[in-house]
Amino acid sequence: MNDITRQRAGRQAIYSGSEYERTxxxxxxxxxxxxVRLSGTTGYDYLADxxxxxxxxxxxxxxxxxxxxxxxxxxxxxDVIRVRIYIARAxxxxxxxxxxxxxxxxxxxxxxxxxAGLFDPAIRVEIxxxxxxxxxx
Length: 137
What we know:
137 residues; two-stranded antiparallel sheet
């Protein structure tokens, strides 16, 4: 999809350029009535088309991807109220949660973390989020 965002009837669909969005017909995020729902996001750098190496680096890239999508919707990571984290390997928990804690210190969104089989063995973590625009105000 060439467009970064698409709007209809107050609904704003936001795309990162991931081939999966185009292939499987979904948006990276959808904003509606001040709420932003961020799809499950992995540690791919969509511009470079590479997956970050290791759980920590993937988590850092996920937050860069999330921040870019949220920014297009008029929100920031400080507006996040709910996070769901899916970790492929239990031993990656501390690495993932250290990045999470650094990112959300002082924001303290509701958070659920589970170990889950992810569709690609190279993907160590996937995260989805909900935000309310200006929740940090």
